[in-house]
Design goal:
The protein is of the alpha/beta class. The chain has helices at about 40-50, 60-75, 120-130, 155-160, 175-180, 190-200, 205-220, 260-275, 275-290, 300-310; strands at about 1-5, 10-15, 30-35, 55-60, 75-85, 90-95, 105-110, 115, 135-140, 145, 165-170, 185-190, 225, 235, 240-245. Strand 4, helix 2 and strand 5 form a beta-alpha-beta unit.
Length: about 300
């Protein structure tokens, strides 16, 4: 069974404006609402690929109830812990077309979300304790505010599950990612900017990406999948094989959920074949399909892009 964990889920409210004028009243020409958060995006994409999963995490208030109901309506099973205070966040995404539709810009205002108390964390750990050997757990996205700023909930989760033989997938950044490498995650998926954050220098060449990926593997990661946006994707697998795939051809209209879709595609591909190259190829198709769509990419587009990747 696959479990995705979204500690700080959101309602993404996407507005398109013809041209964003700072300091003035702007009116949208088109609006969309998505129920998300990185782990939820993984579950939704897995569902489009015909792979079942269960979405876990924290929800709060009327927005949390809307997220839970919305994800269930998409056919994904949920088991959220409900917080007694606050409300799940709303993220506002503004797409400004301006005078040239091909030069769309995106601006975001992301909510911080509610605080999580010790009781809620204990309840979540009890749910996670039900995972069995062989299950897949996806940890992705930001962590909610805690009573102790130094507290790392991901670390506590991994520590509590260390005795189980799980396939751990980690898609987080910076120190949070580095602290989890000691648990030998099956897959991590940084992008170029996140590699630069970790190592202090932007990886401009394939050689630098390879060097950074090998260092992350030495620190504990089994497979390192690097999303390169318009340059495709890079994979250093646990057999020390390196594969770079070119980007799919298409018009990018959306940056939200593309990386999560890549993670979902890789997991689905691995479960289907056990082949890392196939998994990377399906992950790339899923990530590109979402980038080329207003929301998460659909199965028809994924299949078409998959056939075009060599």
């Amino acid at each position: 069974m696959i479990y995705t964990l979204t500690l700080n889920p959101s309602i993404d409210y996407v507005m398109t404006v013809d041209g964003l004028a700072s300091g003035k009243v702007n009116r949208s020409s088109h609006e969309e609402i998505y129920f998300g958060g990185k782990g939820i995006n993984v579950s939704l994409m897995l569902n489009r690929l015909g792979v079942k999963s269960k979405a876990l995490g924290f929800c709060a208030g009327f927005t949390g109830k809307a997220i839970d109901d919305g994800v269930r309506s998409e056919g994904v099973e949920t088991d959220f812990v409900y917080l007694t205070d606050g409300a799940s966040r709303i993220n506002v995404k503004i797409r400004s077309c301006g005078d040239h539709p091909d030069k769309t810009t995106e601006s975001e205002i992301n909510g911080s979300g509610p605080k999580v108390n010790k009781k809620a964390i204990s309840e979540l750990l009890s749910k996670l304790d039900q995972l069995q050997d062989g299950d897949i757990l996806v940890l992705s996205g930001s962590t909610p505010k805690a009573e102790d700023p130094s507290y790392n909930i991901y670390d506590e989760i991994c520590k509590s599950l260390a005795c189980k033989k799980l396939l751990l997938v980690v898609d987080t950044t910076g120190e949070s990612l580095l602290k989890l490498l000691k648990y030998r995650p099956f897959l991590i998926k940084p992008n170029r900017d996140e590699l630069a954050e970790i190592f202090g220098k932007f990886p401009e060449t394939d050689e630098m990406i390879t060097e950074y990926a090998k260092k992350l593997m030495e620190m504990g990661a089994k497979n390192v999948l690097v999303s390169l946006a318009g340059d495709g994707s890079f994979l250093l697998d646990e057999n020390r094989n390196i594969t770079k795939l070119p980007a799919c051809i298409g018009k990018t209209v959306n940056s939200v959920g593309a990386g999560d879709s890549m993670v979902a595609g890789f997991i689905a591909g691995y479960l289907q074949t056990g082949d890392y190259k196939f998994s990377q190829r399906l992950g790339s198709a899923c990530g590109s399909a979402t980038a080329f769509s207003s929301g998460l990419g659909d199965r028809e587009l994924i299949d078409r892009l998959f056939e075009g990747i060599t």
